[in-house]
């Protein structure tokens, strides 16, 4: 395992360890120490939920470029994209799970859903998506699992079990597996578009909150998913895996892709902002002003515009030849997107539903002033830490970069050990 | 008609008893609030707290206060806000597990056993009439957490009339659930008017069965002053106001 993966693991363990205190509090005391409630029903964890689900959808859609649309430029990171999508999905769902008032009733969204609710649709689509990701990952790597069995050791043993009796097989078998992956990916694309556009719609259908109630939301969610998910994949590829420079070109290509999505995302933000700020209805204007000049102004200007959108767009263009820059800028983009997500959820509460409603009955949990509590931050740190640990374990266990590990170790890597996707390309 | 000589309370009592002789699905509970008669005393808010023992962060009924005009022509304005019991409730549509629904008599209720606590309905309600029970107690930190806060004996938002025990921090319903005004269903079914109605000092609140043309509320909604909040959203509230 590389030094950088060890650093990621250490970060994950520390963050997860600190986060345990929050999780204990969450399970022991429920929502008592949370600052969301009747006044601000959705808050920090919903922000992180849409943040991670966006990362997942974005990473997955980029993997589909390889496996569905045959864009071979990205095939070296195809598996990595699928795996990243899986980890981000699990993280997103754990955030929203912890947010529920009755966590152990979550399964009811599956067994007794109300399909008039976008949220019920989400749970069904996430379940389908989860299975697709597992299936894709397995069919992509099962021949390598089988091959690794012969290597022995802990890794070989685990992978041998995960191969579920698959024989190592040759090129022909791998080609067949890739066909299955292509079918799964083809199903996955509309599913991913549906669930992430759907998360946008989940907010947008609420006529009660004009800030969310816009047809642009589902589209914006998709575009910003591609931008943030693409940035995450770029950052991971460059910062964790591109030690020998063999992925330089992939990183440059990914950087270009992220730049394109950022560009479209910025146009959407401008469209939304101009229409909202035009002196018309305060229902639209007040939330936008709140995010720009309210107490959390910095999430808009510094995190959102500076780190996630305009800043990285400029840097990705100016430094488009340097994989190092692209990697670092992408990481900053991902972090900045937390601010973008914050400003999707919280400004929705800037308007009073009825003027004077908030002053009518004053209690802490009814307050419209929201600052995440220590418990909320700790739980977030715990969930994100767990995501880091899971990712590093996966990166150690799975052959995520076909050809990468083997090729670096052995320049005469046998064909079957190299990118199996290349086999298909040669067809 | 003799009705004219009767106190409105007596009229509403009579209306209520008549409605209870009908099958439940033929009733349509409705409230009319005369804003000209509201004096902003908050008796309804307090009565609701006492009746439904709503915990911190939950207030089924509130009175929104405002000021209109400029000095010296200033007037205080009050808007009591219970649940609107919408005929087309957006909170019901968005519930992922159908835990909240509109009863045949028009009251929108929550099945505490089904609710997963996602708070989607809180965001969907255009009137801010839904609340989240975070599991807090007013008497927490005092020598004793009072029994009345722990047992929601009369808050039967479902037909079964179950009793609910609130336990601090536990995922024990109604803690962790959405909560809302239900026109004091438990009182209605025992022949009593909602707590906010009987306590109203200004006699500003009227309650009854809208499907009964003889009822007081049916006559009041024919008044020219009648209106509903946020009519443009198409929620069709069953709580009417006389402006």
Which key terms come to mind for this protein?
heterodimer, A: 427 residues, mainly alpha, 16 helices, 72% helix, disordered C terminus, B: 243 residues, alpha+beta, Alpha-Beta Plaits, 4-stranded mixed beta sheet, two-stranded antiparallel sheet, 8 helices, globular
Describe this entry's structure for a reader.
With 427 residues, chain A is an all-alpha fold. Chain A has a domain of 142 residues. Chain A is 72% helix and 0% strand. Chain A contains 16 helices and no strands. The longest helix of chain A is centred in the middle third of the chain and has 34 residues. Helices cover 21% and strands 19% of the residues of chain B. In chain B, strands 10-1-12-11 form a four-stranded mixed beta sheet. A two-stranded antiparallel ribbon of chain B has the order 2-3. The model of chain B has no long low-confidence stretch (mean pLDDT 90). Chains A and B meet through α5 and α13 of A and β2, α3, α4 and β6 of B.
Topology:
The complex is a heterodimer of chains A (427) and B (243).
Chain A (H helix, E strand, L loop, with lengths): L2 H27 L14 H24 L10 H22 L8 H4 L6 H32 L3 H10 L8 H34 L11 H26 L6 H30 L4 H12 L3 H22 L4 H23 L11 H4 L13 H24 L6 H6 L10 H7 L1
Chain B lengths: L7 H13 L8 E6 L8 H10 L9 E7 L6 E7 L8 H5 L5 E3 L5 E3 L9 H5 L5 E3 L14 H4 E2 L11 E2 L12 E3 L4 H4 L6 H5 L5 E5 L6 H5 L5 E2 L11 E4 L1
Parallel strand pairs in B: 1-12
Antiparallel strand pairs in B: 1-10, 2-3, 4-5, 6-9, 7-8, 11-12
